[in-house]
Amino acid sequence: MPEAREDPLTSDERNELARLRAEVRTRRRFSWKSVVSAVLLVLGCLLAPVSLLTVWVHNQVADTDRFVATASPLIRDPAVRTVVTDRVTEAVSSQVDLRGLATNAVDALAAQGFPPIVTTTMQGLVGPLTASVRTFVHDKIADLVASPGVASLWDQTIRTAHEQLNSVLSGDSKAVVISGGQVQLDLAPFIVVARQQLVDSGFALAGRIPDLHPTIAIADAAGLVKARTGYALLDNAATWLPWVMLVLLALGVFLARRHRRALVGAGLGVAVSMLVVAVGLMIARGILVNAVQPQASVAAGDAYDIFVRYLRAGLRTVLAVGVVVALGAFLAGPSSTAVGLRRGVTRGIAWLRGSSGLRTGSVGPWVHAHLNALRVALVAVAVLIFVFLDRPSGLTVGLIALVLLAFLGVVQLLDQPAAEKES
């Protein structure tokens, strides 16, 4: 009998050959699942940037701590401080006629009988004196703006303003109510403060003033109602839209004829959508910088970068996740490139195991028997670590992927069938 020849094909190559033969033999019919899958994947990828923007805006509007963390660095930015200092100096100088004061001082000296040569000389120094005083004022204001006290005051001011705005938009404010089609401001807090100040000033009878709640109309209610409606919609969208996006992508992959290819497409689609957002942010920054005065362009750019830095961090994270998912699905697929890469890694690990004389003992056969379960468990652990991390960055996603690959390599290194077990 002729000897049976050893099959030169690997298991991956045999599976790929079987799949190609099946495609040749089988006439492809129209599948509604494929159409639905494509539609779901496209919708999911389109919702990815919308979800990211919605969550970011909601965090800025509804989360006071996040808003303060976003806006707090503004007053600490050198370019912004320069613009604030220049603007405050300009405002102060506009209220004080430094040149006029200097001229009046010289005229007063002349009226007191000072020699003309002295007053004439001092009159020529009015311009430099005015500039020196302005510089002095500018430097003092710059020191004030750069002081820790102003930074703390800035943080407290934006926190208080945001809390008040948030309470008004959410309908929790007791001082701002809607009545008779008007937005009414309750003056009770002002009366309490005024009563206490009167008592502190010695007017003890003011302590008998009861708690009063007079109101004044400050705006039409229609605008506030729309704002509250928009606030509620934003709150709901930020809560559910990301989950809707994930469900659409998951259903699209599930209904696809080729799950791995659909997963690759979903990952790349999400990554591309994040690149579109990044380009949009760059264009918006250019428009903003070009719209302001040249002397304020640096400050405007820095302020924009500060406000959108959390949005940029979020899109980098989602971009990294999309790339990792697409790359992982591709490398696990049956394409010749993926098969070749896996074969090369397997041969490299086998060579390392052989050259190092690694003895796996009873661990090798156990790992071989549970190889797929170990791989799934490692991937699941990596996903759980990512999910439970607080605000993971794109770099964090990359590190998790690299550590996962390292552990998968260790599992492959320990994989040894019982027949290869050393006695």
From TrEMBL:
The chain crosses the membrane at residues 35-57, 237-256, 263-284, 313-333, 369-389, 395-414. Keywords: Membrane, Transmembrane, Transmembrane helix. This is Integral membrane protein. It comes from Amycolatopsis acidicola.
